[in-house]
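Weekly puzzle thread! Below is a chain. First person to post its structure in token form gets bragging rights.
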Amino acid sequence: MGTFLTNGSLLEDIREIITSASPLLLTSDAATVTNFVGTVPQEVRLPNAMSLVAGVHYLLLNNSSSSLTVKDFDGTVLTTILPSYYTDFRLLSSLISAGKWMQETEDAFCSLLRILPHPLDLSAVTITGASRTLANGIVIGQELEGYAVGFGGSSMVSFSAGDIKDAEGGALGLNFTPPVIPLNEYLWYSLVAEYTGVSAGKVSLRLRATPAAASAALPDDAIMPRFPFVSRIIKLGFVLVKNDGGTVKVTTIRQLGVSGGGGGGGGGGGSLAILAETALSRCYPVSVTSLGTAAVTDITSEDSAYAVCGVVQEDAASGATVSILTSGAVLMDVPAGLGLTGLWGKPVFVAPDGTLTIIKPQTGTSPFLAGHYIVRMGVLVKNTEGTTDLLVNPQVIGQLG
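Winning reply:
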């Protein structure tokens, strides 16, 4: 069976391969979904990109007991897929035989997980699915009891008991020991969903709550913990907990990566995930290149200026998939090192060095020069915690004469 459309649905050919010591070269007519089983390591090479149409994808599922090494057509290693993991390779550019491939992993299925206050327990939050209605009326969403995710319709994380449970009370994550918070002080937790494999056609997740050090408990909410260094995690957000007169209470939820998130000045807008042309830093403005990759916006280049698409959500290495917040999205907590903190209501522009600035571009006003394009990236806003977010709205205003 091939890959084709019928009654508006995409039906994809799925084939099963027993792993072997011989390299496997995919061809242009290969199945778009390949399930690997067996016991020995396997090398897989993607097809000659010049024989393909940009947009085609190849989903590689590793249900073997050894790793898959995936290379492009020219032999450059793209990634290693461990047992019980998968990667979807989508072709961005077919100008050269190696191509430019975007890699999507299991977290692509879980980008709409949402943190909400628990309806009964003030010391807890729940993790549920989220949905979003597009302008054309189509609803996209993530149902936790559906095909993609392996745990039930909602979950509970208790910051008083240190328990992580599913809707039926079963263990769902790594329980933890909550630090003792001094009376009437606050402590932040980071919350992630950790990918643990694929079972019976479902992505399995395990929740992990990581508190800041107990010494970070303060009379205010100034210190956030870093996310744990755990492989294959979906960063859900932060939760601020207070010892309110002897009772542990959730006071703030800082949601990451969803539309219509659960408080704290986040949510809304759109996002884009493509390959980074070079290493990219959080909050930097980026444009789409002719190869379909993301690069820092260059206001000396007409092509770069008019291809501006948004700002980087999280740091990304060269060649890695970078998450870009596009028009209408909110980048929470602008990095303090950019010098934009507290400048609420100020529009921000792309500077010649690729950073953001509140300096209005004018000829003769340093650092701008004649010929530079005026690229406005959005406006700085004050969130409910009193810190600074960026409301993203990239647009080209004109060119300095």
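Puzzle host: Confirmed. Bonus trivia for everyone else. Residues 109-255 form one domain.
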